[in-house]
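User: I've been trying to design a sequence by hand for this structure and keep getting stuck. Would you show me what you'd pick, starting by listing the structure so we're on the same page?

Assistant: Good idea, let's start from the same input. This is the structure you sent:
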């Protein structure tokens, strides 16, 4: 049984989110600039072997759960062998992946065979034109086919992630209704200021480029956040009006994977509807995670730009130095992020 390390505030750290690539086949308006993010030189990025070696070193330190993300993790050619390697590591109990779903129909059998346990698929609208506006490069059928493939190949549970941005005017009830017939868990996430660097002006009176239909992750605007409570009321009242019935809270012990979402469900639904209140109700006190960026920087907090360079330590071949850095990162995990000033990196570069 690995001993779980605790940070300075008593939180046990057992969850590692790994960005396997900065690259993406979509360009979601709230996540990336239209031109994409600057490409990093190949040797700046961790290889699959380096990522797996890092997981091997931190599993005995208490990491039991690994999520692979990006960028889009399925554009990486090494994703299947990487999952195989991580699956073989003692102590890793749960491997999950966050994806836009587009490549899932093709890759689902190999991912399952490699040992992937479960997937989260991002889907922000069911409207075909809006989907292409939001993702710039995607088609809604791709994400829907990804959800079908996830169910068909037995990933469990299948979660759908929807980032809600007021200006995007999304069909939230239609999305929530995906949980009626199928065992999917649709989670609505509050829009966060990621990639809006501390030196950029956030939107406010007189800031240009903030209004209008085009979002820019570098100009995050607080008025675009739809608080979870407001959204839940809206979905519930629309559902009642349609005769579906209101959302009711789901037993907290329901097995959906530990995380910050709070789950609700329509009467007799096969799945659930979750809310992740990243902005209106910080869940820092229960934060059990660290992030590893594609270029090998360990981040103790999504919102803090403090990073620990494990890539260089890995490349010296000094395993003890890598573990020491890992422990230092945990020791310096901030208690909370009170004042959100944005981050230097975009979400696709941190690993959402
Ligand atoms: N490409 C994959 C995908 O879209 O699922 C994985 C990476 S993506 C960065 C991970 C998650 O972060 C997605 O669910 C995405 O919607 C979410 N995300 C990106 N930018 C965000 C923001 N500013 N606020 C909240 N969530 C965001
Ligand atoms: Fe790509 Fe995911 Fe960001 Fe969309 S949210 S641009 S799919 S990394």
């Amino acid at each position: 049984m690995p001993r779980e390390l605790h940070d300075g505030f008593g939180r046990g750290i057992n969850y590692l989110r790994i960005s396997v690539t900065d690259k993406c086949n979509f360009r979601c308006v709230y996540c990336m600039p239209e031109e994409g993010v600057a490409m990093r030189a190949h040797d700046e990025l961790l290889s699959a072997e380096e990522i797996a070696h890092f997981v091997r070193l931190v599993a005995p330190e208490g990491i039991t759960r690994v999520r692979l993300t990006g960028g889009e993790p399925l554009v990486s050619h090494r994703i299947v062998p990487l999952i195989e390697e991580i699956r073989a590591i003692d102590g890793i109990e749960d491997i999950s992946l966050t994806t836009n779903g587009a490549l899932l129909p093709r890759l689902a059998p190999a991912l399952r065979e490699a040992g992937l346990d479960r997937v989260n698929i991002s889907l922000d609208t069911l409207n075909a034109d809006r989907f292409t506006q939001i993702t710039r490069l995607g088609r809604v059928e791709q994400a829907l086919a990804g959800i079908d493939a996830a169910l068909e190949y037995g990933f469990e549970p299948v979660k759908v992630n929807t980032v809600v941005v007021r200006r995007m005017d999304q069909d939230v009830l239609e999305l929530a209704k995906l949980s009626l017939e199928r065992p999917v868990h649709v989670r609505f996430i509050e829009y966060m200021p990621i990639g809006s660097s501390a030196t950029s002006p956030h939107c406010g009176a007189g800031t240009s480029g903030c209004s209008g239909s085009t979002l820019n992750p570098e100009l995050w605007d607080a008025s675009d956040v739809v608080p979870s409570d407001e959204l839940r009321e809206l979905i519930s009242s629309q559902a009642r009006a349609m005769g579906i019935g209101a959302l009711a809270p789901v037993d907290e012990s329901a097995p959906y994977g530990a995380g910050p979402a709070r789950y609700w469900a329509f009467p007799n639904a096969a799945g659930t509807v979750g809310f992740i209140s990243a902005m209106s109700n910080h869940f820092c006190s229960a934060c059990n995670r660290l992030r590893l960026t594609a270029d090998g920087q360990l981040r103790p907090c999504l919102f803090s730009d403090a990073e620990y360079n494990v890539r260089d330590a890995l490349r010296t071949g000094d395993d003890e130095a890598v573990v020491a850095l890992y422990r230092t990162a945990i020791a310096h995990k901030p208690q909370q992020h009170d004042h959100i000033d944005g981050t230097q990196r975009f979400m696709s570069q941190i690993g959402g």
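That's my pick for every position. To get oriented when you compare it with your attempt: The chain has eleven helices and 14 strands. The CA atoms of residues 18 and 292 lie 5 Å apart.
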